[in-house]
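Page 47, continued from p. 46.
Same chain as before, 236 aa.
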Amino acid sequence: MPIILSRNVTIRCNSTLYNLVKSKTTSSLLYNNSQICFSGYQVKRHIFGLGNITATASIPEQKYILNKTVIAPVNIMYDVVSEVSKYQEFIPYCVESFVNKRDPKTNKPIEAGLRVGFRQYDEKFVCKVICNCNINSNDKTVIDNNIKNDEVKTVVAESLTHGLFDVLYTKWTIKPHPTRTNASEVELLLKFKFHSRLYNSVSSIFAKSVTELVMNSFSKRVGFVQKQQHLRSKKL
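Result:
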């Protein structure tokens, strides 16, 4: 017989914590070789056997900066980074990428998003996107004395949806390599903070690796784009 509950509850079953969340479905758990049914509830397992540990305002956002030399002109790297709709073709765990709005003058995205899937997790993010071809000369973090402002390009994305994150911000800075022709110096800045204290703790373990994975994915994509351009030019 299904168990009828009056509110959302948390139970421990076989040393694991579960959430019972009101739903139109009927879910069940296996307990001591017996199947227990919960009518009108969805059973959600707590990650790592812990509950939803809420972050407090005292937890600082995490920040990672990664620099890489990419063998590609600035314009090609900029086009690959700014075209969010193509991300699903080469970024690991990105199952969907889309652009909601574009700048009518440049056709670059101004609102775009991703859906990331990994095992049982599936999250969708919509971001405000700012694609700049020209950098303000007051931005001393990216301007080099030997590089003109109009040679430096940036792509900034800041999350507009806050279901999982309190803060999610990325900034790509792309400029010509000072000594190598047809090469770019690329900087990826990532800032984020989860709502959950647990997620913030766990993410500190693998965030650097994820940042490196993303950077390498873009580097490989740029190589692919250049190869395709070369093949097309040979056919002409």
